[in-house]
Amino acid sequence: MREISHLKNEPQWMLELRLKAFRQFQFLQNPPWGADLSGIDFENLRYFLRASDEKPSWDDVPPEVKKTFDKLGIPEAEKEVLAGVKAQYDSEVVYGSLKKQWLKDGVIFLSMDEGLKKHPELVREYFGKLIASNDNKYSALNTAVWSGGSFVYIPKGLR
To answer: Which helix H or strand E contains 95, and what residues bound it?
Structure first.
């Protein structure tokens, strides 16, 4: 958690949140629902993978991964229907867009890393509120080692 937080240049409060969640993960039991995950060696997993020290771009994504996005119709489908799209490769977002209409209305749609850097007060207020780290063993693990993902903020009252 310390290495992930350091590599991402996160604020101290995010590191503290990660460490607290990891302590929860260590002490919480496997939930009685879902698949039996007791055979997984969580000490032997790699939780953060950065392809290089440079910020990855859509051009860096391997052709086979791009083919998967093509099969999903992204970014073609995005142009016609979606309000925005973020594509993640390994642990980082490599492509993203938001329709201009939503930008002018104050909607914020960024990678989580960008959201944390540009709007730390919003991330701090809302991060982990939908599913708390102490909800179950694996929500705690997710909070401890999260990387990537999307940050979406919609101003109150906007429809």
So the answer is: strand 92-98
pTM for the model stands at 0.68
Do 15 and 5 touch, CB atoms closer than 8 A?
yes
Query: Which H/E stretch holds residue 152?
Result: strand 150-153
CA dihedral 60, 63, 64, 65 (to 10 degrees): 40
What one-character DSSP code corresponds to residue 63?
H
Distance CA 86, CA 74 (A): 10
On the question of pLDDT at 82 being above 90, the answer is: no
Joined together, the tokens standing for residue 126 give 């809302």
- Taking the C-alpha atoms of residue 1 and residue 116, their distance in angstroms, rounded to an integer, is 16
User: Hunting for tokens 């929860």 — which residue is that?
Assistant: 24
Residue 57 has pLDDT above 50, yes or no: yes
Peptide bond into 11 cis (omega under 30): no
**pLDDT, position 73:** 64
For residue 116 the two structure tokens come to 């944390």
Query: Residue 74 in contact with residue 85, Cβ under 8 Å?
Result: yes
